[in-house]
Structure formats: structure tokens, C-alpha cells
Amino acid sequence: MLLRDTPHLSKRHPEKIIMKQILLHVVVIASLVSGCATPPTPQNAQEFRTVVTQGAYGTFIESFVVNRPYKEVAAIVKAKTNECLNAKVDYKSCTNTTSSSTCKNYADTYVAKVVDGAGKTEVRVQFRRAGEGVGEIHLGGKPPADGSYIMVADIMPAGNSKTKIEMYRTTFFKAVPGAIRHWSNSTSQGCPTFKEF
């Protein structure tokens, strides 16, 4: 699958995002110390659904219904997913002190796939990060080659020209489910900027 390079989204990484990442690591480490079981890293969409359904930390199910026919919603979400959610986002994270400034470059890659099934359309999105000083800690095992799953969305008919969207997602990476929500409701047809972690 070819990835579309998003035109130079390089930016200073907001401090609040760094703090969220630190908090995430602290909570995960705390859960390990307290003896909480860590689920295996999902290797496919169904395994991701399973760990989310079981209440894995940092995940939840978001479900809503829109007043638009299923075929219409599925078509626009499929088109916009292929256009927008296969992306590489470059950015810079800088740490400033009174005497110096240190910056590191990172690259986030989003890999999306749309699967047409019997009576539903499925959107799968995976994520991986590369860059200076990026370390990987895989508590439940190594993720798939395209990266860790961050969202699986099921789009289904709900009767009377309505459509149900059920998103199995992480607490983070809010731009991705936000885009699905906007496209489904036709409140926006734009691509996400991936600035919201």
C-alpha cells in the first residue's frame, strides 16, 4: 500500500501532547507493578475488537446513528478514508532550557484499509512512529507490520434510511474517529490535520 506524504505538517510538538504520552506510560507501568494482566497486542481487527470489548486500558466503544442511508454513508467514508487516512505526518519535538534548545524529528505513519463485508463496511486504522530516540515497548507482544491498531469502525444499516457507526477505538488519536464522525454526519468533508493526539 502506498502512503501519501502529507505536505510538511512539521511542527513543534505541543507540550500537552508530551504530557499525555508521559501520563500514558506512567499508568501502564503502574498497572504492571500492581499485577494487572496485559492483553496480547492485537494482530488483526477482530483481536482489537476483542480487547476493546474486554475493557483494555485506554480503549472504549463509541456508537452512534446518523439519519443518512447506509450506502451513502459507506461510500463517503470509504472515499475519504482512502484519500485522507493513509498519511505520514512529520513533526518536531523541542525541549527548551535556560541555556539551550534540543529538538528531535519524528514521523507518524497512519495506515488505513476499508473492507466491504456482508451487510457492513469496516474501516481499520493502524499507527506506527519512527524518529530520533523513539523506543518501542511492546507489553503484550510486537504489533503487526503496519503498526498498532488504533481504531476499527463498523458501518451498518440501521433501518429507515439510517446508519449505525460503531467505533472500537483508543482514548488517544482523536483526529481519526473525529474524521469518521464528521464524514458520517456530513458536518465536514475535510481531511484531519492529526494535530489532536
**Which outline best applies?**
globular
Low-confidence stretches: 1-14, 21-35
Give the fraction of residues assigned to helices: 25-40%
Strand content: 35-45%
* Average pLDDT over all residues: 82
- What is the total tally of β strands? 7
Class per helix and strand makeup: alpha+beta
What separation lies between the terminal Cα atoms?
Answer: 24 Å
What's the number of helices? 4
Strand order of the largest sheet: 1-3-4-5-6-7-2
Q: Number of folding domains?
A: 1
Characterise the protein shown here:
There is one protein chain. With 197 residues, the protein is an alpha+beta fold. It has one domain. The protein is built from four helices and seven strands; from the N terminus they run βααβαβββββα. It has helices at 15-33, 45-53, 70-84, 175-185; strands at residues 4-5, 59-66, 87-96, 101-117, 120-131, 148-159, 162-170. A seven-stranded mixed sheet has the order 1-3-4-5-6-7-2. A hairpin with a 2-residue loop joins strand 6 (148-159) and strand 7. Helix 3 runs antiparallel to helix 4. The longest helix has 19 residues, at 15-33. It is globular, with a radius of gyration of 18 Å. Mean pLDDT is 82; it is low at 1-14 and 21-35.
